[in-house]
Specification:
This protein has 445 residues and is α/β, with parallel strands linked by helices. The protein folds into 3 domains: 5-57, 3-methyladenine DNA Glycosylase II, Chain A, domain 3 (Orthogonal Bundle), CATH 1.10.15; 63-312, Dihydropteroate synthase-like (TIM Barrel), CATH 3.20.20.20; 325-443, 3-Layer(aba) Sandwich (Rossmann fold). Helix content is 40%, strand content 18%. It has 16 helices and 17 strands. The strands form 5 sheets. It has an 8-stranded parallel sheet. Strands 13-15-14 form a 3-stranded mixed sheet, sandwiched between helices. The chain has a two-stranded antiparallel sheet with strand order 1-2. Helix 6 (165-174) runs parallel beside helix 7, helix 12 (344-357) packs across helix 16 and helix 14 runs parallel beside helix 15 (415-422). The longest helix has 16 residues, at 238-253. The chain is globular. It starts with a helix and ends with a helix.
Length: 445
């Protein structure tokens, strides 16, 4: 169980030296208990107390990292049940499976299909982050060969999936240096699998059919010297899986039950692409840190990635684009100038419709802290001063010889004050962005 503020206070020097930035040791203890301070802020704490406090102050869910270089990924380190309480820290990792039964061109084409599952949405890159090599053949030799081939053909993080310790040893050796996630250890194979994971410096998946069995198994793996663990509940219906995932989340975060304080992995391979898409999105919503899917259909994968992006966006920090002047097409000194806010969905909607008009244009993006046009205007983050300041900051007047500015139709009310602040002619654009192509084609000469 986590230590209370008073428990922590008993372990502190009680000198009230203020070196930590707090007025008293008790205030520091309370801040530490609420995770608003770091133990390192106290320079005089004893080594014995430091060890006890470090264990108590550790995040309730361990962060697990695998992969290498630019393709390293992380899961875990979550602190809340619901994102509005703070935010979620580690987006669900989607991994696509490749069977070691595939050979030659079939294997190569499968890897290429997985590598190609990369997309751009509202200016952010999203895509499959891991490749799961699965020992469907049952052969240790085939598995090692497939792991080696996957290592050469893809830079994605690797998940090695086999219940055989012999096959896992060969597979891990074939991709040594890539820090793969090894899946999975069971109660029968825990000693052998933990040794392989420890020898190769890899995180290990614990697999069991109940929460109680998983807790026991994770303790055995930790006792064997492997700290980075991922949990997998197997053999349950989707309903039972989601229910137990919620129970595990509560036990790890609210009760700080360390044997369950690890991220989870789920395998979704049953059914067609539609079925897998629905199952994966459900598991994304219910705390699965890693999901291994079988389908590589782009139309099925994109909604899963979109769900991850939506859920793991910080609710207090909307997705934003950089405030500046964007050039659409090849605008010149006679091209139209318009403005919008730096909320990503707003900007990319405007950009798309301006491109559809085929009228080369300048779009001035005003910093409104990532809020939409109406939200920013109602909160006074979008007004004549912010627009005028943005025009000055980005030298808009040097881009064109005319002095006409198109503003969103929903904020037509600010046209008068904006005209006074900028000395530009204000043209009120359409209220609906979808009408922008027609407006530019008809109104701009």
């Amino acid at each position: 169980m986590a230590l209370t503020g008073l428990d922590i206070f008993k372990l502190l020097p009680k000198t009230n030296c203020k070196k930590c930035g707090m007025p008293t040791c008790l205030a520091f203890a309370m801040a530490l208990a609420q995770k608003r301070a770091k133990l390192d802020d106290c320079p005089d704490v004893s080594d014995e107390a430091k060890n006890k406090l470090a264990a108590a102050a550790a995040p309730p869910m361990r962060k697990v990292v695998f992969g290498s270089g630019d393709n390293q990924v992380q899961t875990g380190q979550e602190t809340v049940l619901f994102r509005h309480e703070e935010k979620f820290h580690s987006p669900t990792i989607l991994a696509a499976r490749v069977s070691d039964k595939l050979t030659g061109d079939d294997f190569k084409q499968r890897i290429e299909a997985v590598n190609a599952l990369q997309f751009e949405r509202v200016g952010e890159k999203i895509g499959i982050k891991a490749l799961a090599v699965v020992n469907d053949s049952g052969s240790a030799k085939s598995f090692a060969s497939a792991c080696s081939a996957a290592k050469e053909a893809s830079d994605l993080a690797l998940v090695l999936v086999t219940d055989s310790a012999d096959a896992m040893a060969g597979g891990a050796a074939a991709v040594k240096g890539r820090v793969s996630l090894l899946a999975s250890a069971t109660v029968e194979t825990v000693e052998a699998m933990a040794k392989i994971a420890k020898d190769n410096g890899c995180p290990l998946v614990a697999k069991a059919g109940s929460i109680e069995a998983l807790a026991d198994l994770s303790e055995k793996i930790k006792a064997a010297g492997v700290e980075d663990i991922v949990l997998n509940l197997e053999g349950l219906s989707r309903q039972e899986q989601m229910y137990n995932a919620s129970r595990m989340r509560v036990l790890s975060l609210k009760k700080v039950f360390r044997p369950l304080g690890y991220p989870t992995i789920s395998f979704v391979s049953e059914g067609d692409a539609d079925t897998q898409m629905a199952a994966a999105i459900s598991l994304i919503c219910k705390y699965s840190g890693i999901i291994v899917i079988d389908t590589v259909e782009p139309w099925a994968v994109l909604p899963m990635l979109t769900a991850v992006m939506n859920i793991f966006t910080d609710p207090q920090k909307p997705v934003q684009v950089e405030p500046k002047v964007y050039r659409i097409g090849e605008p010149n000194e006679n091209s139209p100038v318009m403005f919008t806010t730096n909320f990503s969905l707003t900007y990319y909607t405007v950009e798309s419709d301006v491109e559809a008009s085929r009228v080369p244009s300048y779009i001035l993006v005003v910093d409104t802290e990532g809020t939409s046009v109406l939200t920013a205007y109602s909160g006074d983050k979008l007004n004549e001063k912010t627009v005028a300041d943005a025009m000055t900051k980005f030298d808009v007047e040097k881009l064109v010889k005319h002095r006409k500015l198109i503003i969103p139709g929903y904020v037509a009310v600010m046209s008068g004050k904006l005209e006074e602040a900028t000395n530009w002619e204000i043209m009120v654009g359409p209220r609906e962005c979808s009408m922008l192509p027609k407006y530019l084609q008809e109104m701009w000469n």
